[in-house]
Write a structure and sequence with these properties.
This protein is α+β, with helices and mostly antiparallel strands.
């Protein structure tokens, strides 16, 4: 029994240690290059021969988004940005919080006010029911997106969205190529 306990402890420590540094610092190898060098592709090409994520994990407290394929981390994005009030689960429209829980990427918007947008399926039935108990709207249109289109370069400082998850433009271009619609996303506190 002592051996099983040590094995379990070792697996628990390994599971909590996060992705390997090589995944976190990877520059995007394996992701198709943009055709014109300036604008992200507006559609997802056939998946044959390219890297595709099947699961996303967002850790709000660590400000980390990790893309996985077949249980293995393939990309990680640090210093992600949230709504003006990032702590806690989104409950109502206008609370400027980012949802927590399991959702899916259900749609993409190449014509967004922000550089590319992947919509998160918030609100789910439980979110709608909670808001209804208080006679409020749960809100919606929560996305993972880049920076505002009118921002010529760089990144806005701090948390600034209305509940979305913001990445740099280069990061959302890479994620746009990695993530097909229907991908599960878990957002943790």
């Amino acid at each position: 029994m002592r051996w099983n306990g040590l094995l379990f402890l070792g697996l628990a420590v390994a599971a909590c240690s996060g992705p390997p540094e090589a995944v976190v610092s990877a520059s995007g190898e394996g992701v198709p290059a943009r055709s014109d060098g300036a604008v992200a592709a507006r559609s997802i090409p056939a998946t044959q021969g390219r890297l595709v994520a099947d699961y996303l994990l967002v850790d709000k407290s660590d400000r980390l988004l990790i893309a996985y394929r077949a249980g293995q981390p393939i990309r990680a994005y640090r210093d992600i940005q949230f709504g003006d009030r990032p702590a806690g689960h989104k409950r109502f429209e206008g609370d400027e919080r980012t949802p927590e829980g399991r959702y899916t990427i259900d749609w993409r918007n190449p014509q967004s006010r922000y550089h590319l947008s992947l919509r998160i399926s918030y609100p789910n039935a439980a979110d709608r029911a909670y808001a209804a108990r208080y006679g409020r709207s749960p809100g919606g249109d929560i996305f993972i997106h880049g920076q505002p289109n009118q921002l010529p370069v760089g990144r806005l400082p701090g948390d600034w969205t209305d509940g979305c998850i913001a990445l740099s433009n280069a990061e959302i271009e890479e994620l746009w190529q990695l993530v097909p619609d229907g991908t599960v996303i878990d957002i943790r506190p």
